Amino acid sequence: MNSIPAVAIEFASLNFPTIVPMIIAILGALVILVIDLINKNLDKSLYVMIAVLFLVIDLGVIIGFTSDVRGFFDLLLVDGISILSQGIIVLASIFFVLTAMGKLRFQEYRYPEYFALYLFMIAGFQFMVSSDSLILILVGLETASMALYTMIAMHNRASALEAAIKYFTMGALSTAFFAFGSLIFYAVTGTVELGKVSEVLVASNYENYPMVLLGVVFMLGALGFKLSLVPYHTWVADVYEGSTAALAGFLSIVPKLAAFVVALRFFEIFIASGDPFVEIILYMTVVLTITIPNIIALLQRDLKRMLAYSSISNAGFAMTAILIGSTQATEALFLYWIMFLITNLGAFSLIWINRSKDNNNFSSDNSMEKYSGLIKKQPFFALLLGLFLFSLAGIPPFALFWGKLYLIGSAVNGGYLILALIMVLNSAIAGYYYLKPIVFMFFKEVKEEETNILANATTPIKAVVGLCAILVVFSILLIEPLLEIISYYVQISGY
Q1: Which end of the chain is less enclosed by CB atoms within 10 A, N or C?
Q2: What is the pLDDT of residues 36-47, one digit of tens each?
């Protein structure tokens, strides 16, 4: 009887440093669970600090990464894009987890499992941006998604449970789309690694093109859900409204950045080859995603739902970079999302501070009327929120203006003049609904009794909001150094 010879795998050939950042996040989650098993009466602040500690270590490992880009059976691809996006994801996660250190003890923050799930979710996003294997991307996607569904449901309010069910249902459909799209590409090319998929498609001159196009449609559906592109955006407003403001802000930034990197790697195959049908599909999706949510946002009278629709439109703005496909556009994508991170982190942190702990039903807790006359009873709070809304509106010289400027400039330089015009017009529309809550705060009469909103803010939250406000105001000083860093990592990745 012939025996199959054993294959020796050398540890060095696995290039272990490529997986260390994810292991650190997973290890942090396990440490939290073990500490909870030993002593269940510890303060939640300990778990916040443990999460921050491991994320800081994670960030340090990412910044100091100097190994080969391929590792772990060639499944991992830690190139410049991966390092850049992992750095942004972990840094954003550090700031968002600090918002848990508030005086209002919401249901989910009582459980150490919430913070363990948070770290598992970060590890999932890191896997997503550090691979060009559709299988590992799917594993990372599901790891992050399952943790996120549970975290939303742990808020333990009727609206939160409804949001978690909607998110889970749509997420399951998205996963099915991703799996079926991967299956089609494997059937056509015999591989699930995006680099090899591109090589096979080019070598075969896009043989079985109808099947390839069908695979693109399924993958766009899967990524469209994660990026909240039209028409896959219907879950967004309900999920944002049902989540805490802090988690809603997180949802608007971190999961989408991970999905953008996957979309960048996937659609680059077709944009680089000048595929006209894929370009048309992407063009239509981008235009609809920028425009339709903007129109819906005009009709909103709830601040969090308005920001939810605006985040959809902002995702459409960022998606233009993938459609354009130039190096300048890719750099503009990361600059735009960093500026969006700074602004949204500040805005959603303020909304979280202003949240009522006793609202357990389906009614809105962030109606525009709640902010009426805020300048008279809480002038500093009103000025800060107004600052972040001005930035979201793209008014110079605040942060998001520079992101929009560079994106529109890349569209013009790429020959997409009509797209650039659509982006400018939608920026003007967005300016109107961002000014609506400012009108309520500064020009309407006070409708509620005076309360000290900032009394709910602890020192970490004040520090986060203050840092965001400073960066929003003095963002012009960040542009050149940020572009140098982004350009370095994008160019070593070959995009």
Answers
A1: N
A2: 888 877 777 888
What values do phi and psi take at 157, rounded to 5? -125, 160
Question: How far does Cα 111 stand from its chain's mean position?
Answer: 24
**Mean pLDDT throughout 267-288?**
90
Measure the CA–CA gap between 231 and 477, rounded to whole angstroms.
37
pLDDT in tens, 285-321: 999 999 999 999 888 888 888 888 999 999 999 999 9
Please list the residues that pair with 193 across neighbouring strands: 133
Residue 5 lies in a domain: no
Structure tokens at 471: 């960066």
The pLDDT tens digits of the residues spanning 327-367 come to 999 999 999 999 999 999 988 888 888 765 554 444 446 77
Tokens of 391: 């930035």
Domain count, the chain: 1
Q: Which of 147, 434, 396 is nearest to 314 (CA)?
A: 434
Residue with tokens 């830690």: 78
Average pLDDT over residues 102-108: 56
Amino acid identity at 275: D
Q: What is the reported pLDDT for 12?
A: 63
**pTM, entire model:** 0.91
Q: Answer yes or no: are the C-beta atoms of 221 and 177 closer than 8 Å.
A: yes
- Going by C-alpha positions, the residue among 135, 137, 62 that lies closest to residue 93 is 62
Distance between CA atoms of residues 375 and 358, nearest Å: 24
Count of alpha carbons within 13 angstroms of residue 343, beta-carbon side = 32
CA separation for the pair 396, 408 (Å, rounded): 15
Position 2 in a domain = no
Residue 6 lies in a domain: no
User: Does 285 reside within a domain?
Assistant: yes
d(Cα 423, Cα 264) in Å, to the nearest integer? 20
DSSP state of 193: B
**Strand pairing of 76-77 and 70-71?**
antiparallel
Rounded Cα gap, residues 401 and 472, in angstroms: 10
Phi then psi dihedrals of residue 133, to 5 deg: -95, 120
